[in-house]
Design brief:
With 333 residues, the chain is α+β, with helices and mostly antiparallel strands. It has helices at residues 45-49, 72-85, 93-106, 181-198, 240-251, 263-271, 304-317; strands at 16-23, 26-27, 31-34, 52-54, 57-61, 67-70, 117-126, 141-150, 161-165, 202-205, 218-223, 226-229, 255-258, 275-280, 284-287, 290-293, 296-299, 328-332. It folds into two domains: 16-150, 2-Layer Sandwich (D-amino Acid Aminotransferase, Chain A, domain 1); 161-318, D-amino Acid Aminotransferase, subunit A, domain 2 (D-amino Acid Aminotransferase, Chain A, domain 2), CATH 3.20.10. Strands 1, 2, 3, 4, 5, 6, 7, 8 and 18 form a nine-stranded antiparallel sheet that branches. It has a five-stranded mixed sheet with strand order 13-12-11-14-15, with helices on both faces. A hairpin with a 2-residue loop joins β16 (290-293) and β17 (296-299). Bound molecules: pyridoxal-5'-phosphate.
Amino acid sequence: MARAVPAVFGSVFHPEMPVLAYENQAWQAVRWQSAQDLSLAPGAHALHYGSECFEGLKAFRQADGKIVLFRPQANIARMQQSARLLYLPVPETDAFLQALTGLVARAAESVPDAPASLYLRPTLIGTDPVIGKAGAPSESALLYILASPVGDYFQTGSPMKLLVETEHMRCAPHMGRIKCGGNYASALPWVLKAKAEHGAHQVLFCPNGDVQETGASNFALIHGNEIITKPLTDEFLHGVTRDSVLTIARDLGYTVSERPFSVAELKAAVEDGAEAILTGTAAVISPVTSFVIDGQEITVRSQERGTAIRKAVTDIQYGLAEDRHGWLVPVVG
Ligand SMILES: *Cc1c(COP(=O)(O)O)cnc(C)c1O
């Protein structure tokens, strides 16, 4: 059966969603409700003081019809970390995982075939209806999960031009590892400026020359047999895809170097034939095709190795290669 996938990423949602409420110092049992709208006090803490974080992960329909989630425990752990850092109630692991698997099971009919997938968007918001709490955490919260069938946004040869930004940061350094909406708002001026002034697709944030990440993806260089990416710090988002890609690269015989590197090193490596990749749940790997550094455009000559590593990851997701790292959680079939 053909399952339609909307052209615009995340524009169509499964009609129901699980909602977990934290009230009176306790997480309540899951409620299933319409994903059409959400009733919220206009004074809700998240709407005024940014007590919000989210996750993004996918469910895949495999060749034999089974439906699996990819590394949901990693996303649950990351949202728990985001919640701690934002002083939001921390979701409970088991109830969270059950809400995810329950949603995928209910939405099973709309999980598309490869190379599309079902994207899941857990969202945690502070709901205290008190605008006097500017300097205090929210004591109540909602965790809800949206599900959206999404297509394959990867196309060999599609352009990915990055503006290298050395002056501005994506977000405040202590917020970097929190997956929160505020960080996206914080990056928007530089992203829009890069589009308007350079026709760039993304901004690579490199404050004081330290190569970090783009607005929504991690970054790595593939230079010969070495994959180079920044070691985990508070300043940037610890991507699940980053970890999956590094793990698979090690399996494929690459040397993985998690170390700081500069724009000067990036430029020299690309001129020496290195590849550059973005990693994230939506596309797994997007090969970079060019950089704008100090107003000068530098072309990346090859996308081959990044494309091959990407295939090794998506083969596991779609059940075409063995899941040697225990990343798949079966939901249906
Ligand atoms: C979500 C996100 C990523 C990628 O994380 P994945 O877990 O790989 O999807 C990278 N950077 C930022 C800023 C993000 O929000």
